[in-house]
User: Fold this.
Amino acid sequence: MDTDAELSDSWWERVKYYAQLAIEQVEYGVDAVKQLLSTLTINERCGVMLEFEDIDPDKFAQLVTDAPQWTEWMV
Assistant:
């Protein structure tokens, strides 16, 4: 049976994986990132964006410049 720590680790690994995918999708435009995020839960979206900013602040800044309304994608 999974423990809470194992579930948390699994969730965080998934978030880090999707954050990396989101970073790669920036090359294909805002819609590609938005489409990727739309497949995730609200909590996962928020985690992905936090991780995105930590991993690659320059690409995150590019995304924010290209899509200042990105916070609307979180809900």
Q: What stands out?
A: Residues 4-70 form one domain. The chain has a mean pLDDT of 92. Residues 59 and 65 are 10 Å apart (CA to CA).
